[in-house]
């Protein structure tokens, strides 16, 4: 396995917001973290990224994970900055930037913008973009870093359906090209089932299920956790489709 | 596709050239103002005599002209340039690390601490076996660093978040202002007059010592800030985003905070409190060259110097006989500028 998480737990004061969680993910895997609001998805992701004080260990290929190996995109927030989209992308290469930005660095940023269909926004200030566009630019910035572990906290929350699919395809392509692992929190269970190889289900701060989407998303469990009456159908490719009644 | 990809690279080169041109233009304005500052003054020395004194050097035959130019005007102008640059840089760094467009070296009470230090030096400096011109700036400098340590200790205990730093700064500001008031209350009338004059903020206290000291501090701060230009730029995208790019924000804040204290201490300990430069220069710099700190920092430095030297020239022109202290000019001119900033920022939201 590439990513090994063992006994990872988070406390806020005396309250345990994440009970010890253990899981392992293979190279090239896209894993979705699902669960109701306030279940502890963001705490799990931030703890794996090393951005939250936590107990337990996170290893990448047998060695402790270091911050430079991680690309973390927090939940959607408004960026109020006059930095241009291209400048924002270049900041993804922060550690290697000098006083003079190298043409190769600009070219790499431009390629990433083109890949995500953002070239036309290149010289626009970040503050002038919509929430969805900002989210795409920040994702492009993280992809430019080529992290071995890409962690995304609800990366599609501000996006229309077209861009949701586009983002999740890019995320999949990233995992396949780099052999890295993607860990992403998603609210849309059908999308999670369609684009993720495995799902981690969090309930009230506890990791209660982990496995392929078809195993994790069974009707009684989804009905119980999300407190809605649903039916699970199958798409043409055999992915679960969650239909609420 | 090829054309679309080629465009941004071209745009970034054009943008860089434009920003360098802005920096050059600001430097030329500064040069023009510095020359104007040198050729004007209460002595009413004609331009020809100033140029002759400049050509003759500090040991020129016309002792009166040489003293006015080399011992009075030159240190005042250079101190104005260096203090303005220090306050411009300190203001920009402060606004970036606190994510607050209204932050300036005054927000954290550094100037109030310097004022208290100077008042202490003026009142009790005579008890020390040192000259008053050394004791007063040294005491102002030391007290600014005490304020810095105080806020730093709070930040260490409670985390260096913008909210903690601003609140600790406001507490420090009121603490030192109240101590300053206490000293003014206790001071004899002639000492009180000296304290009040110091607090005005004036370049008349300048000397070659102040030029050397402030220049040395700028030389210490500049390379450290130069190393952090991309980190400071990343912070403009917001704390969460910068942290998720692997930036240790608390460490960056503490480092920059210490440098801001040093720059402010160096600037105000020789001239007294000069307001608004550290607030206005960063805003104008960001409007001119954007938020890339490779350009914003030097432009804020040059603009800070431009504002202060312009205030000096205006002070001399308004009242040729008795120079109006620059602190008064910057405070009067700064209020409409501050209102413009507030209205502009409000409009952006």
Automatic annotation (TrEMBL), chain A:
Gene3D superfamilies recorded for this chain? P-loop containing nucleotide triphosphate hydrolases
Q: Which CDD domains match?
A: ABC_Iron-Siderophores_B12_Hemin
**Superkingdom of this entry's organism?**
Bacteria
Pfam family, any one: ABC_tran
What InterPro entries is this protein classified in?
A: AAA+_ATPase, ABC_transporter-like_ATP-bd, P-loop_NTPase
* GO MF annotation terms: ATP binding; ATP hydrolysis activity
Residues covered by the ABC transporter domain: 3-229
Kindly indicate where the leader peptide sits in this chain.
none
Q: Which UniProt keywords apply?
A: ATP-binding, Nucleotide-binding
| Protein name, UniProt field | Iron complex transport system ATP-binding protein
From TrEMBL, chain B:
Q: Where is the chain membrane-spanning?
A: 76-94, 106-124, 130-152, 164-187, 207-226, 257-283, 295-315, 322-343
Please verify whether the record's keywords include Cell cycle: no
Q: Which GO terms describe its cellular component?
A: plasma membrane
Q: Which GO terms describe its biological process?
A: siderophore-iron import into cell
Q: Where does this polypeptide localize? A: Cell membrane
Report the membrane topology from the UniProt record: Multi-pass membrane protein
Q: Return the InterPro entries for the record.
A: ABC_BtuC-like, ABC_transptr_permease_BtuC
Q: Name one Pfam family in it.
A: FecCD
UniProtKB keywords: Cell membrane, Membrane, Transmembrane, Transmembrane helix, Transport
Q: Does the keyword Transport apply?
A: yes
Q: Name one GO molecular function term.
A: transmembrane transporter activity
Q: Main localisation, per the record?
A: membrane
Matches recorded under PANTHER family: ABC TRANSPORTER PERMEASE PROTEIN MJ0876-RELATED (PTHR30472:SF25), FERRIC ENTEROBACTIN TRANSPORT SYSTEM PERMEASE PROTEIN (PTHR30472)
Q: Which family does it belong to?
A: Belongs to the binding-protein-dependent transport system permease family. FecCD subfamily.
Would you tell me the protein name for this molecule? Iron complex transport system permease protein
Can you name the source organism? Cereibacter ovatus
């Amino acid at each position: 396995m590439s990513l090994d998480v063992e006994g990872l737990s988070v406390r806020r004061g005396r309250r345990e917001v994440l009970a010890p969680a253990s899981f392992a993910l293979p190279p090239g895997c896209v894993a979705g973290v699902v669960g109701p609001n306030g279940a502890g998805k963001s705490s799990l992701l931030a703890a794996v990224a090393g951005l939250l004080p936590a107990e337990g260990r996170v290893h990448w290929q047998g060695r402790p994970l270091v911050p430079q190996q991680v690309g973390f995109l927090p939940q959607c927030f408004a960026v109020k900055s006059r930095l241009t989209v291209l400048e924002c992308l270049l900041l993804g290469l922060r550690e290697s930037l000098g006083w003079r930005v190298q043409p190769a660095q600009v070219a790499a940023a431009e390629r990433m913008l083109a890949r995500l269909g953002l070239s036309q926004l290149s010289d626009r200030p970040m503050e002038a973009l919509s929430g969805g566009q900002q989210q795409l630019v920040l994702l492009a910035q993280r992809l430019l870093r080529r992290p071995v572990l890409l962690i995304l906290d609800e990366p599609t929350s501000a996006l229309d359906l077209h861009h949701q699919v586009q983002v999740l395809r890019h995320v999949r392509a990233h995992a396949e090209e780099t052999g890295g692992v993607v860990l992403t929190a998603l609210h849309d269970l059908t999308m999670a089932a369609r684009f993720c190889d495995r799902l981690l289900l969090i309930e009230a701060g506890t990791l209660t299920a982990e496995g392929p989407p078809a195993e994790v998303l069974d009707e009684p469990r989804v009905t119980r956790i999300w407190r809605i009456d649903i039916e699970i159908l199958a798409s043409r490719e055999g992915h679960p489709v969650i239909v609420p009644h | 596709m090829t054309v679309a990809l080629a465009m941004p690279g071209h745009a970034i080169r054009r943008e860089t050239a434009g920003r360098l041109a802005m920096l050059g233009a600001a430097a030329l304005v500064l040069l023009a103002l510095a020359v104007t500052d040198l050729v004007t003054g209460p002595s009413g020395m004609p331009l020809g005599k100033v140029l002759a004194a400049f050509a003759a050097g500090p040991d020129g035959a016309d002792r009166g002209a040489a003293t006015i130019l080399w011992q009075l005007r030159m240190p005042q102008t250079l101190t104005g340039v260096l203090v303005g640059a220090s306050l411009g840089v300190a203001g920009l760094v402060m606004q970036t690390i606190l994510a607050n467009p209204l932050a300036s070296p005054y927000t954290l009470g550094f100037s109030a601490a310097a004022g208290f230090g100077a008042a202490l030096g003026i009142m009790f400096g005579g008890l020390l076996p040192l000259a008053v011109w050394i004791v007063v700036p040294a005491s102002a400098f030391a007290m600014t660093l005490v304020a810095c340590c105080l806020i730093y200790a709070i930040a260490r205990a409670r985390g260096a978040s913008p909210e903690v730093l601003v609140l600790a700064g406001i507490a420090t500001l009121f603490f030192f202002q109240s101590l300053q008031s206490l000293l003014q209350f206790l001071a004899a009338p002639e000492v009180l007059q000296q304290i009040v004059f110091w607090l005005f903020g004036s370049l008349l206290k300048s000397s070659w010592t102040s030029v050397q000291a402030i220049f040395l501090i700028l030389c210490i701060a500049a390379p450290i800030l130069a190393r952090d230009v991309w980190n400071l730029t990343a912070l403009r995208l917001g704390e969460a985003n910068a942290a998720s790019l692997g930036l240790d924000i608390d460490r960056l804040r503490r480092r920059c905070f210490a440098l801001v204290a040093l720059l402010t201490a160096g600037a105000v300990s020789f001239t007294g409190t000069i307001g608004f430069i550290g607030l206005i220069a960063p805003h104008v710099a960001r409007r001119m060259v954007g938020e890339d700190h490779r350009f914003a920092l030097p432009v804020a430095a040059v603009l800070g110097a431009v504002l202060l030297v312009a205030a000096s020239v205006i002070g001399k022109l308004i009242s040729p006989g008795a120079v109006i202290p620059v602190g008064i000019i910057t405070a009067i001119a700064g209020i409409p500028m501050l209102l413009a900033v507030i209205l502009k920022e409000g409009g952006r939201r």
